[in-house]
Amino acid sequence: MSAPKFIAIGHLSFDVNIIDNGSPSSHIPGGASAYAALTSQKHGISTGVISSVGDDYPADLILNGIDFRKVISEHTASFANYYDNDLRTQVLLASGSRITRSAIPEDWRCPDVFFAAPLLHELPTACLNWFQAKLSCLLPSGWLRRWGHDGFISHANSLPAFGSRKWDVIVVSETEIGNLPEQQLFNLGSVVCITRGEKGSSIWSDGSWIDVPSIKAQPVDFTGAGDVWATGFAIAFSEGSTIRDAGLYAAAAASISIESIGLAGCPSRQDILMRMP
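Above: the chain sequence. Below: its structure as tokens.
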């Protein structure tokens, strides 16, 4: 089997969703790397995932047809997500093990897209140096998360120190960076995407901002919307789309994702093109 063209790395996870003070859902398989990988696969791109999970995560079923390399862990990362409209409060229920460079197959080091999505500091900030990708995309959420004994997650007001070159694309949500200086983002990525839910997104490149509107949807589950947005953007941008067009493609992808529960909402290329204005 040849090396994957799209490689996602980061914890797979379970999500327990509580919407508008309703009853908790069951443990829904998720994780940013799963949303990214399934969206990539539905685009017809050969895809690989490297993650740390427990034996309770149904990776063979969820990632069927995707090259999955597992780092053994006693637990699978798990979150309770409390939603009030599109605002989310998270509580950490369990965490997985760290992912090290030794988990990367040697022939996986030069993909078309390297998609890093740490959830809980499981990746070192220098992980970009593990790859020579044509395009690198980072969701730094996991490096911003902080939690105490009660598990309630907050977001730091600074990013950890980085010892690698710039990422090509970074994607963060507005709520994650409320206390973060913009300059830290500019120092981290060449293209900085800030998602704002139904308010759309703002994308910074070459010293200026581009605003991209959201696309209307009938939301059922907001979990993973930012991950799908980032994946759509990374795929479109890697294939030569302009920043604005890649942003619109990402917006259409996210609007589709929230109309289904969990990973079922990961869209194909045809789905997205049909949704675009």
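The first strand starts at residue 6 and ends at 9.
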